[in-house]
Amino acid sequence: MNVAVVILNWNGRSMLERFMPSVVKYSENVIVADNGSTDDSLVFLEAEYPEVRVIRLDRNYGFAEGYNKALAQVDADYYVLLNSDVECTPRWLEAPIRIMEANPRIAVMQPKLLMYDSKNTFEYAGGAGGFIDSYGYPFCRGRLFSTMEKDHGQYDDECDIFWATGAAMFVRASVWHELGGLDGDFFAHMEEIDFCWRVHNAGYRVAYCPQSTLYHVGGGTLPKSNPFKTQLNFRNNLSMLYKNLPDDSRDKVLRLRMFLDGVAAVKFLLEGHFGEYRAVRKAHKEFKEWREVLEKKRAAIKPHAVSQVYQGMLLIEYYLLRRKTFTELRGRFSR
Asked: Which domain holds residue 277?
């Protein structure tokens, strides 16, 4: 049983310098895949961590295709996709791998993800495992929209989830290759949710392991307010829904989502965020241009109703009913 911890780097010298000590201390078979960096990341690695294997990609392929190209060169039973801004803890690899070894239908697993600067608070990118609502809005146990909960042990149960964060995702290598890895057209954002949805559609499970804890800085590549990030999130969310939703709900959900995206765009405009407004419009334009390609991808997936989808609208729960934590949600999850 061989486990490869693979960090995708792009001009991340400062993050590597800060976090590689904990990674190499508590992990084996560490690999850095470099996405065409132009800083001195590789010089630093060669000098300070000669034992770490480096895969050099010729340019920045983004998160999705960067990992696809890197993992095509890695021979292992399990891949661990790990962000460069994550602090590892003792024995963090053991429990997830032990659980996956004992449960062959678990294809993806996520550890508990807490904030690096506030170590008793769940981190935005993954918390205690991810879900989506009926209209494709993602959230986590421990994080709804921008509200992060303190960790009081309330999510210390092993459970199935809908998606695992790409910041620290354990993946069974055979399933990764069976499904073709991440969707490289996404570039970044939503690609791990799309992948996990395809995992469900293929009949496998995605699970959460509370016995493993990591601390994540988050936002290491793009700032939280960034038109390009907005464009990717809106475009990729629609694309993910088109590819993975069952026939009986796809068109209805997409119509409503595009309307709600329009409302968000108007809000950006009224607030003076003109770049964000243009980003939403560009995202919709690209999504429409992608339809033919998305239809081919959908045919290969063969979507059907899957588990762990929240049967409600998170926007109403959070903004109108003021339910700010996962445990306060009153809807049900499909099984």
From this structure: 222-304
User: Do 228 and 197 fall into the same domain?
Assistant: no
Closest by alpha carbon to 231, among 292, 272, 190? 190
Total domains present in the chain: 2
In Å, the largest CA–CA distance within the chain is 56
Is residue 234 domain-shared with residue 169, that is, in the same domain? no
* Same-domain check for residues 242 and 191: no
81-95, 150-164, 307-321: least confidently modelled range: 307-321
Instruction: Give the tokens for residue 148.
Output: 């992060």
Position 331 scores a pLDDT of 79
pTM reported for the whole predicted model: 0.96
pLDDT in tens, 267-304: 999 999 999 999 999 999 999 999 999 999 999 999 99
Those residues with Cβ within 8 angstroms of residue 28's Cβ, 6 or more apart along the chain or in another chain: 3, 5, 93
pLDDT at position 307 is: 85
Radius of gyration of the chain (CA): 19
Q: Is 322 part of any domain?
A: no
List all residues 6 or more positions away from 233 whose beta carbon is below 8 Å from its beta carbon.
189, 190, 283
Residues 72 and 125 in one domain: yes
Are the C-beta atoms of residues 131 and 139 closer than 8 Å to each other? yes
Give the whole-angstrom CA distance, residue 13 versus residue 40: 6
Show which of 216, 247, 280 is a domain's final residue: 216
- Please state, in angstroms and as integers, the Cα–Cα distance from residue 130 to each residue in 168, 193, 309, following that order: 12, 8, 10
Amino acid at 318: Y
DSSP code of residue 293: H
Q: Please give the sequence-ordered ranges of beta strands (E in DSSP) within the chain, or none if there are none.
A: 3-9, 30-35, 53-57, 78-82, 86-87, 106-115, 130-133, 138-140, 143-144, 147-148, 159-160, 168-172, 205-216, 309-311, 332-333
Q: Which residues contact 286 (CB under 8 A, 6 or more apart)?
A: 231, 235
Tokens 């210390």 correspond to: 156
- Please say which residue of 200, 216, 232 terminates a domain: 216
pLDDT grade, residue 223 (50/70/90)?
A: low
